[in-house]
Amino acid sequence: MIADTVQTALPADQGLPQRFRRTRLARNGSLAGWAFAAPALVVYLAFLVYPALTSLSISFTSWNGISPTKTWVGLQNYVGLIHDSVVHTAARNNLIWALVTIIVPMSLGLALAMAVNTRVYLRSAIRTVLYMPAVLPLVGVGTIWGWLYQPAGVINDLLADIGLGSVTHAWLGDSTTAIWAVTVPAIWVRTGFPMLLYLAALQGIPAEYYEAARTDGASAWQRFRHITFPSLRATHYIVLALSLIETAKVFDLVYAMTDGGPGNSTQVMGTWMYFNVFQSYNFGYGTAIAVVITLVAVIVGIPYVRSQARQLV
Amino acid sequence: MTTQMTRRTALGVLGTSALGAALAACSSGGSGGSGGSGTLAMANYDTTQQAVLTKKVLAGFQKKYGISVSVDSLPGSGAAIYPGKLRTEMLGGKAPDVFRCWGGSIAQPFVTSKQVISLDAAYKQYGWDSKLAGPNIKDMTFNGTKYGLPLYASAVGVWYSTKDYEKAGVAVPTTFAEMESVNAALVKAGIQPWLAGGKYGWYVMRFFEWFLEMTAGPVEHDKLRNTEASWNTSSVVDAFATLQKWAQKKWLPNGVMALDPTQVEANFTGGQGAMALDGQWIEQNIVTAKMAPSSYGTFVPPTDQSTLRFSGFTEGLFVTAESANSGNAEKLLNFFTSVSSQQLTQNAYTDVQGVPPIPGYVGTAQWAKWLAQHDHYVIQDQSLSTTLANAYFNIQSDVVQGSQTPAAAAVAMQQAVEASRTKS
Fold first, then answer.
1. Closest by alpha carbon to A289, among A221, A255, A297?
2. pTM (predicted TM-score)
3. Average pLDDT in the B357-375 region?
4. Beta-carbon pairs below 8 A across chains A and B
5. The complex's ipTM?
């Protein structure tokens, strides 16, 4: 405390013993900040940075995950990714997943938010019901939807009951329909979150804007186009950024519903990484996939993190 | 000055404590090695019911030798998860002294990575060769060295509903042509011939390896499984063609590649299909479902070969290289080879000779005789490397869906074998 006072009182380092001379950190007043952050930093370094760097080093080996020795193979695993046909399938599926499970939930979320942002009966209950799928465990969701999709399951039964018997299909048993079928529960689960964010944002738009627009004779579409949509710009950005990060991590639903099959037709990068690391003993190769997934998530996450940082400054 | 030092010290202590607590948390859990000469640690995948019986055996072991054994079970995890847990424990320096595992390519990585010890000396010391059924010891033998003690011998055969067979007016087939006639007759009678689940690949694989045993014969089939012969051959094409035919004729269930194999046993006892290509464990479901012994039967899948073989696999016990008490661990393994221990664990498909059959398990008793009479080939996903098995599952899926011709499938399989060789 005494030392702090002295340091603050003196304009320069003149007259101070060596140990009291202010470093650049001390001048910025950030030494204490670093000290306070140290416990969290230690945990962060030990449990995030160190494992991440270890994983990175493993990705340059052909380690099988058990052997005491790790053979350095350089970039061989990364070159292997380029030639791996399952990686191509997984990358395509990740792209399909990103497009479908971002665009549809965002659109539905916005539509539902606008619908429940009115004075409807049981408004709170409706909001809760619509958000509920978002809090369900994904493996449970995947298992239940897997049953629904069975050839003799509820979905085919419903289609037959409404006269669409010819459309019934082994949705998850056909490589051409399986990945699309898996995106449906993903949409169901992921619509609640954007709805909640849009709902909060909609309530922040001043009612005067709409009153003025109505006075000027603006139609409902024009009010949406010129007031609602632009006012939600920041929310669009947050939802999009978070959804992009989420899509890079897709694993649970695919694993629970199809296990990457039939064949490898529904593999995504996350499941293919898992199979290589935990089932095929290709630890080095699987870790290389994990590094790529991380890089993609970081790249798509940078704009969001920067925007959040700007808001904090 | 004093205050600053105190703050630094406090922060340092706090940070160190947090790290220490976190690291301490990391060091707990898992099977863990033996703590002293009077204790052993064991890992297995016993079900809750099996765990109770295993504990009774271990209590007997403690009474006889004064060595207590702690058990860490991962029930129901299957070969997909349990080996990963073992691997993590070994890497963390917490390997159990003894663990249960499947043979073949599932145990292979533990052997090649020198995580288990040779049991050759223990086999001689305890005379295990004469206690166990010979054919299954080979499933635990790698490069001529015995690394595991086989205690569970499983075989894949046909389990059928006698009621459905009677309804369709068919008898147990003795040739493959008769088998296909049975399929056709069951369809005609409005009965789904086979139950199967292709979700993880391995259930449908059982059909293919059966067909391959028929089309290639035992010698060529073994060469193919050991990747010593080209898969781009007529016998492989014929086996894939048969698989495709069975799928297209709906002898396998509609949308089979999406069905979960864990449902097959329940669906069989629920009367949703006439046959299942399953191991003796299906009889546990049958007994639990209180099906009368006369309502179901079992037979060896016909292959039309002069040497009758079927698919099988072996599970057993291994001793880890990390074990500080490998002598005691081998003593424990030997304790499990006694008839009384096998009876106590109610091991219906024991590999130990002289164990009387469990009352009520008619089919399992029959399979014990067949296992003793006939040789078996190691089930395909434990013969092939996991990478190659995965490539096979992909090809199999395309064949079943009709998106790949049998000839193209044979070519693709050989390409996968060559790619696997290049990689290794």
1. A297
2. 0.83
3. 90
4. 134
5. 0.80
